[in-house]
Write a structure and sequence with these properties.
This protein is an all-beta fold. The chain is 0% helix and 50% strand. The chain is built from no helices and 14 strands. It has a nine-stranded antiparallel beta sheet with strand order 1-2-3-14-11-10-5-8-7, with no helix packed on it. Strands 4-13-12-9-6 form a five-stranded antiparallel beta sheet, with no helix packed on it. β10 (104-108) and β11 form a beta hairpin. The chain starts with a strand and ends in a 10-residue tail after the last strand.
């Protein structure tokens, strides 16, 4: 997939998707290249819209940081084994971010655990991200995101990363600590 953005962005965004042999892995190579001078920063941003999971798991030990809307109700954000587990059953609309730079975010979909992560790549810029969960009030989906750092690019300069999405079976009933 490739899209050209003219004035004022002047950039080309490309994504190449590869589905794993057994269908449980998707790799997405993302790149943004500046095609002409612009004073607008760009960022790589991977958003997955998924059926509302029972839990979203984000890296870090500090409580999740509200990015928009209200903070989650007490008991919704639980620490577990070096991660934070956000329970969606509390309801409401929340946009929450991990307290540390992240290269992964996960969602408990019942029979599967979906993990979205940045694969290690070369030293090319674009391999830094923030893990964000967005739970919409009354919507039939939630979003898990890896949001890259905004960067100013010179003409001809590019940033890229590879996002890997894995489905791991049989997580039904697993405790927050065992995740």
């Amino acid at each position: 997939l490739s899209l050209e953005y003219g004035e004022p962005l002047h950039c080309r965004a490309t994504r190449t998707l590869r589905i794993g042999r057994f269908g449980s892995t998707i790799r997405i190579h993302q790149q943004i290249e500046r095609t002409a001078p612009s004073n607008i920063p760009v960022a790589l941003w991977s958003v997955l819209q998924i059926v509302p999971p029972s839990r979203i798991i984000l890296p870090g030990t500090a409580p999740l940081r509200p990015v928009a809307f209200a903070a989650p109700p007490a008991g919704a954000d639980v620490g577990a084994s070096g991660a934070r587990v956000y329970h969606l059953s509390v309801g409401g609309e929340h946009r929450l971010a991990a307290s540390v730079p992240a290269k992964w975010i996960a969602a408990d979909l019942g029979r599967f655990l979906m993990i979205q992560r940045l694969e290690p790549t070369t030293d090319a810029p674009g391999g830094e991200a923030e893990a964000v969960a967005y739970v919409h009030r009354g919507a039939p989906y939630a979003e898990i995101e890896l949001v890259g750092r905004e960067q100013m690019l010179a003409q001809g300069q590019a940033i890229e990363n590879v996002v890997r999405i894995d489905l791991h079976p049989s997580f039904t009933g697993m405790s927050d600590e065992r995740l």
